Amino acid sequence: MTGTGNYRKFEGVTVTYMPISRLEFAQLAPQLVDIYLQAMNYSRDMRDQRITVWQRDSTEPGFQAVIAHDGTHVLGVTYGHPGSHSHWWTQQIMRGVFETGGPSAAQREVLASFFELTEIHVAPQCQGMGIGTRLIQELLSLAGQRFVVLSTPEVPGEENSAFRLYRAFGFEDLLRNFVFRGDPRPFAILYAALPLSARLPAAER
């Protein structure tokens, strides 16, 4: 694997952060989904379905993707696209907003112009090296919207690396304990103003 990008060394390994095209993303989707399954500890029974979903996502207007690699292996991936009120994900969030008495002025402002950070995953053996931090920075540097919005599973006390990373970047609550239709798990819907702070979070994923 070759390409230009930004480099940072970890224990003798040079990590490259590189935007990839829609076509490259679709071609790499099986490999990228494998990282997702490992990072989330999901069953491989989901693999074919997720590959199809990720490849479909790459056709969204304004789609952007960034990978981290060491020249041989992909170590992490993140992707997203501008939010749209025609999308199921946004419609679900709007449902949650109305069900909780909104939209407030702040919620209305965020949902008027946002980039949906759809997925960010780092291979388990490479977590804790700051790769997730850099992936977010690289991806969102490509976004032209006023805000970024993401969803992450709720955990007690926000005690996991994902929440620590998002909070360090200044993400705030849009909705909490929100349940998407078809998924019984509660999610936090978080947002941050763009551009993100240039500082590197102390808590790295």
Quick tags:
33% helix, alpha+beta, single chain, N-acetyltransferase domain-containing protein, acyltransferase activity, transferring groups other than amino-acyl groups, 205 residues
Descriptive account of the structure:
GO terms for molecular function: acyltransferase activity, transferring groups other than amino-acyl groups. Pfam families: Acetyltransf_7 (PF13508). With 205 residues, this protein is of the alpha+beta class. It has one domain: Aminopeptidase (3-Layer(aba) Sandwich), CATH 3.40.630. It is 33% helix and 29% strand. It has helices at 22-40, 47-57, 88-99, 105-112, 131-140, 161-168, and strands spanning 6-10, 13-20, 64-69, 74-82, 114-122, 147-153, 172-179, 186-193. Helix 1 runs antiparallel to helix 2 (47-57). The longest helix is centred in the N-terminal third of the chain and has 19 residues, at 22-40. The radius of gyration is 16 Å and the shape is globular. The model has no long low-confidence stretch (mean pLDDT 91).
Give the number of helices.
6
Question: What is the helix fraction of residues, given as a range?
Answer: 25-40%
Helices and strands, in order, run as EEHHEEHHEHEHEE
CATH superfamily: Gcn5-related N-acetyltransferase (GNAT)
Hey, roughly how much beta strand do the residues contain? 25-35%
Mean of all residue-level pLDDT scores? 91
Low-confidence parts lasting 5 or more residues at pLDDT below 50?
Answer: none
The biggest beta sheet is recorded as: 8 strands, mixed
The general outline is globular
Q: Count of DSSP E strands?
A: 8
CATH architecture: 3-Layer(aba) Sandwich
Widest β-sheet, arrangement of strands:
1-2-3-4-5-6-8-7
Cα Rg: 16 Å
**Global structural class:** alpha+beta
CATH class: Alpha Beta
Number of separate domains: 1
Distance from first to last alpha carbon = 24 Å
Q: Examine the coordinates and then state which fold CATH places here, giving the name of the CATH topology.
A: Aminopeptidase
